[in-house]
Write a structure and sequence with these properties.
The complex is a heterodimer of chains A (458) and B (546). With 458 residues, chain A is of the alpha/beta class. Helices cover 45% and strands 13% of the residues of chain A. Chain A contains 17 helices and 14 strands. In chain A, helix 7 runs parallel beside helix 10. Chain A starts with 17 loop residues before the first strand and ends in a 10-residue tail after the last helix. The model of chain A has no long low-confidence stretch (mean pLDDT 97). Chain B is α/β, with parallel strands linked by helices and 546 residues long. The two termini of chain B are 43 Å apart. The N terminus of chain B is likely disordered. Classes of the chains: A alpha/beta (458), B alpha/beta (546). Chains A and B meet through strand 1, helix 1, helix 2, strand 3 and helix 3 of A and helix 3, helix 4, strand 3, helix 5 and helix 6 of B. Chain A: This is Nitrogenase molybdenum-iron protein beta chain.
Chain lengths: 458, 546
């Protein structure tokens, strides 16, 4: 057994010990978000290990180069402050790598010693270390608050610094997609285009973290939201923020700062959340939804009806990030599956409330926890077994020990590929999710069925 | 940075390459980097001096990690029955969770905590009010759940800053439990200049808190410890297979697939065989000073190197039967190796490699490339020191800077009751005279050809330039470097975690490596970079069938 020391019994709640976390720290989210700005080099203001770990984790997930710099704190910098390191870094980065933007995020180290990013950026500006037409933005991302999702949200919020209000609306809708795959961002843009809505999507890692192999290395690939687009976001008609945890803060900031009204939606995973997204787009733009998109919706409904016999009342355990889990739980319930154990490591009482609402009519009792960990999820699975587990690659240890089929979905996926290329958002993405779920369930059935029950036609 | 479209320098001159690497840097950075980029001259008895183990310049995209990574990730991570508890915000523990591909085998019933990730997940209130109570509680909870033999506590950056006394917490919990050894590592990420400081901090504590705890004599005629082997991709398993075949007993591996008891019994071995000297040579020194166990450098990367290392061990023990068994094992293993290498060499001979990895690894892997007829045209270490480049004899001349001074050096004396020289002075002299070198390792530089480039702490910009200018057939480094190199159309092999391959140590490992490099450098994929219409873009007419 891989997790041989995990007991079934849950005698008392752990107060201090986290085991097998269902989250990581803020800075990695900030780094991922910053990669969605065209020509941007993320910069980690802390020890060089933070940057190395985040780059490694993102590289293993996306299988793409992740460029990011670090302030390389030493013991001295940790005592006297990291201002000198950051000023030197800004100068070196603009000289050597020539990005359009440096997106600085802090770490537990620089936050604990109290480095003031705003003041350091001002000093860099005054000392002429930021060339004309180049930018340094910054987000506080203390690792001891929230999770990687919070860090993503904080960096996206800091992107609204660019937004300008010229007084003339640009006729576009801002879409903040949240922490989804590059392929998902591309799919959201495609759906908006099909609906006939002009959009500014930020951040946008499509074309950055699913770049082609051509024999040329572009440190700053062609994709990403441009600075011009980020500036123009202040003139947009409105903002659709996908995901309360990932995207709402930035949308509200744009509302407050630039008077761009916003609507916070769930991430468009599954039928209903996608319906709401398309409907919101249609209403904002005042357009009729295209036949193509209506066709895609119909195809998803068709597949649900075709596959329903295999989904009905199957129990599922889920682990991941709040915005994704809310939509996924809704999707599973909508196809008559039963998500019974749901855990996120990210804090947020609202999460538990939303999940309880979504699952209230289910025939089984639901275990749900924010700020939980996979150790607890595993114990729940031992006490109340499930038919399917959905989560990141770390789930495979539980899946093997409990002999439960696993659908890899979320972050990080370290042992399979394709997530950068095949979206799971929208109606098309829904097809892929259903295909993956069915494959997992039926592969197991084919493995387990006795010979007399083994069937050609399923 | 511009995209790479320039052609390879047909006849590259190392001085030109060096100048090109430095040309874009601000003057201060260029001056510093110039001392870390050395054009090799294979002089007799001495190699030119290189600057190493110095700070990375802020903003320069380095390959390096931190002290915590060296301590928890590298040294303590591969131990399997010690609960590793990280005191800090969640990230540090998360990123070190199963990412180094250390394999373990605890059998059906043994303790194996390697698949678990444990953390105190510090919150802002812990930063403000201190995290000692939470740490003590977390240790208690880990003890109650798992009843392990031992719990190791690791500090992350904020712990040092807020002044949590993790050592006292550990000591108190150890006393409270009575049957569980608890100790802590002050391995905050900001210490030192790279992972190397973390190796040192980890090994100091292992030596201080575990080694010597179990005096029970282990069976075996030829007892050794294998130091600096981390069982990545199963390397340690392959080496142990060979040891078993030879009749050599491995008391303790530091630290691949290791157990608490292995460390605790290490002082009962009769020889220390040091593999990755960068991460552990000081433990070998301490074991000799305190217990009288001599040490030699070994290298099990490369079939020839493996054979040589086995012969060295046999020579040390000087036992006819062992010497004969070792020869028999080598004779038995080599035909399979030779068969593969002679096939692979047809396709790899004359090809070129670059390696920037570790503090000993680049040197070790050069052996494997040599065996395949491949030339290493540029190499360096991520966290090496000068002695790793130039040889151990330079240690007395090393400048101790502020960053190194902060890393504790244990003062060790001979153990009053357990110091026992394994060989008499006369025997040692005789062995040395016969050619066995103790307490020594050569550097990378003397082993590199004239006019090759040796580069310390290579960064992303320089890596890209090097590949652009010198177009190696393969480039070796870590996961962060993998895809930027491959985008250039050059295959990249990870030599930290081996991508998904391994083992590469020992005889079977050598075969695996030959096949893997053959696959990489001869993969068809590198010929697909341009579409046919990009190679021949001219059009003659529209909508006319030819």
């Amino acid at each position: 057994m891989l997790l041989r020391h995990t007991p079934k019994e849950i005698p008392t709640e752990r107060k201090a010990l986290t085991i097998n976390p269902a989250k990581t720290c803020q800075p990695i989210g900030a780094m991922y978000a910053a990669l969605g700005i065209h020509g941007c080099l993320p910069h980690s203001h802390g020890s060089q290990g933070c940057c190395a770990y985040h780059r490694s984790a993102l590289t293993r997930h996306y299988k793409e180069p992740i460029s990011a710099a670090t302030s390389s704190f030493t013991e001295g910098a940790s005592v006297f402050g990291g201002q000198a390191n950051l000023l030197q870094a800004i100068n070196n980065i603009f000289t050597v790598y020539e990005p359009d933007v440096i997106a600085v995020h802090t770490t537990c180290l620089s936050e604990t010693i109290g480095d003031d990013l705003k003041q350091i950026r001002l000093k860099a500006q005054n000392e002429g270390k930021i060339p004309e037409g180049k930018y340094v933005i910054g987000a506080p991302t203390p690792s001891y608050v929230g999770s990687h999702v919070t860090g993503f949200s904080n960096m996206v919020k800091s992107m609204t610094e660019f937004a300008e209000t010229t007084g003339k609306k640009n006729g576009k809708v801002n879409i903040i997609p949240g922490w989804v795959e590059p392929a998902d961002m591309e799919e959201i843009k495609r759906m908006a285009k099909l609906t006939g809505v002009k959009t500014i999507l930020f951040p946008d890692t499509s074309g950055v973290l699913n770049a082609p192999l051509t024999g040329e290395y572009k440190m700053f690939p062609d994709g990403g939201t441009t600075v011009a687009e980020l500036k123009s976001a202040g003139d947009s008609v409105g903002t659709l923020a996908l995901g309360e945890w990932c995207s709402a803060d930035a949308a509200r900031e744009l509302d407050k700062k630039n008077k761009v009204p916003c609507n916070v939606l769930d991430m468009p995973f599954g039928l209903k959340a996608t319906d709401r997204f398309v409907d919101a787009l249609r209403k904002i733009a005042g357009v009729t939804v295209s036949d193509e998109l209506a066709l895609e919706r119909g195809q998803l409904v068709d597949l649900i009806s075709d596959m329903h016999q295999y989904f009905y009342h199957k129990k599922v355990a889920l682990v991941g990030d709040p915005d994704q889990l809310i939509s996924m739980t809704e999707f599973l319930v909508s196809i008559d599956m039963c998500p019974v154990h749901i855990i996120t490591g990210t804090p947020g009482k609202k999460f538990e409330k939303r999940i309880r609402e979504i699952t209230k009519d289910m025939p089984f009792e639901v275990n749900v926890k924010a700020k939980g960990d996979m150790f607890l999820l595993h114990q729940w699975m031992k006490n109340d077994p499930v038919d399917l587990l959905i989560g990141n690659s770390y789930c495979k240890y539980m899946a093997r020990d409990e002999d439960v089929p696993l659908v890899r979905w979320g972050f990080p996926i370290l042992d399979r590929q394709g997530h950068q290329y095949f979206p799971t958002v929208g109606y098309k993405g829904g097809l892929r999710l259903l295909e993956k779920i069915l494959e997992a369930l039926l592969d197991r059935k084919d493995r387990d069925d006795p010979e007399e029950k083994f069937e050609l036609v399923l | 940075m511009a995209t790479m479209t320039k052609k390879k320098m047909v006849q590259w001159d190392p001085a030109d390459v060096k100048a090109e690497l430095l040309s874009k840097y601000p003057p201060k950075v260029a001056r510093k980097r110039a001392k870390q980029i050395m054009i090799n001259e294979a002089l007799e008895n001495e190699t030119p001096e290189i600057t190493a183990n110095v700070r990375t310049t802020p903003g320069i995209i380095t390959m390096r990690g931190c002290t915590y990574a060296g301590c928890k990730g590298v040294i303590m991570g591969p131990t399997r029955d010690i609960v590793n508890l990280v005191h800090g915000p969640i990230g540090c523990s998360f990123y070190a969770w199963l990412t180094r591909r250390n394999q373990t085998d605890a059998g059906p019933d043994g303790d194996n905590f390697i698949n678990y990730c444990m953390s105190t997940d510090m919150q802002d209130s812990d930063i403000i009010f201190g995290g000692e109570k939470k740490l003590a509680q977390a240790i208690q909870e880990a003890y109650d759940l798992f009843h392990p033999k031992s719990i190791a506590v690791f500090a992350t950056c904020p712990v040092g800053l807020i002044g949590d006394d993790i050592h006292t917490v550990a000591k108190n919990m150890k006393e409270k439990f009575g049957d569980c050894n608890v100790y802590a590592f002050s391995c905050e990420g900001y210490k030192g200049v790279s992972q190397s400081a973390g190796h040192h901090i980890a090994n100091n504590q292992v030596f201080r808190h575990i080694v010597g705890e179990n005096d029970e004599e282990k069976p075996g005629k030829f007892k050794i410890n294998l130091l600096g082997e981390y069982n990545i991709g199963g390397d340690g398993f392959e080496i142990d297979r060979i040891f078993n075949k030879c009749g050599i007993t491995n008391i303790a591996t530091f630290s691949g697939n290791s157990t608490y008891d292995q460390f605790a019994s290490a002082h009962t071995a009769d020889l220390n065989a040091v593999m990755c000297h960068r991460s552990i040579n000081y433990v070998a020194d301490m074991l000799e000073t305190k217990y009288g166990i001599p040490w030699i450098k070994v290298n099990f990367i490369g079939a020839e190197a493996t054979a040589k290392s086995l012969r060295k061990i046999a020579e040390y023990f000087g036992d006819k039967e062992l010497i004969d068994t070792v020869e028999a094992v080598i004779a038995e293993e080599m035909p399979a190796v030779d068969e593969v290498v002679s096939d692979v060499r047809i396709r790899t001979d004359g090809k070129t490699a670059m390696m920037f990895v570790g503090g000993s690894r680049a040197h070790h892997y050069k052996e494997l490339f040599n065996e395949m007829g491949m030339k290493t045209i540029s190499a360096g270490y991520e966290f090496g020191h000068r002695d790793d480049y130039e040889g151990r004899q330079v240690i007395p001349n090393l400048k101790v800077d502020a960053d190194s001074r902060n890393i504790e050096e244990l003062v060790i004396e001979a153990d009053e009751t357990r110091y026992r020289p394994r060989k008499t002075e006369k025997e040692m002299k005789a062995l040395e005279k016969a050619g066995l070198q103790f307490k020594h390792y050569d550097g990378l530089a003397p082993d590199m050809d004239n006019d090759t480039l040796i580069i310390d702490d290579l960064n992303q910009y320089e890596a890209e330039k090097l590949v652009e200018l010198m177009k190696p057939d393969i480039f070796c480094a870590g996961i962060k470097e993998k895809y930027s190199i491959q985008k250039l159309g050059v295959p990249m092999k990870q030599l930290h975690s081996y991508d998904s391959g391994g083992p590469y140590a020992g005889f079977k490992g050598a075969i695996n490596f030959y096949n893997e490099i053959d696959r990489l450098v001869n993969s068809k994929v590198w010929s697909y970079m341009k579409a046919p219409w990009q190679k021949n873009p001219q059009l003659s007419a529209a909508y006319i069938w030819e």
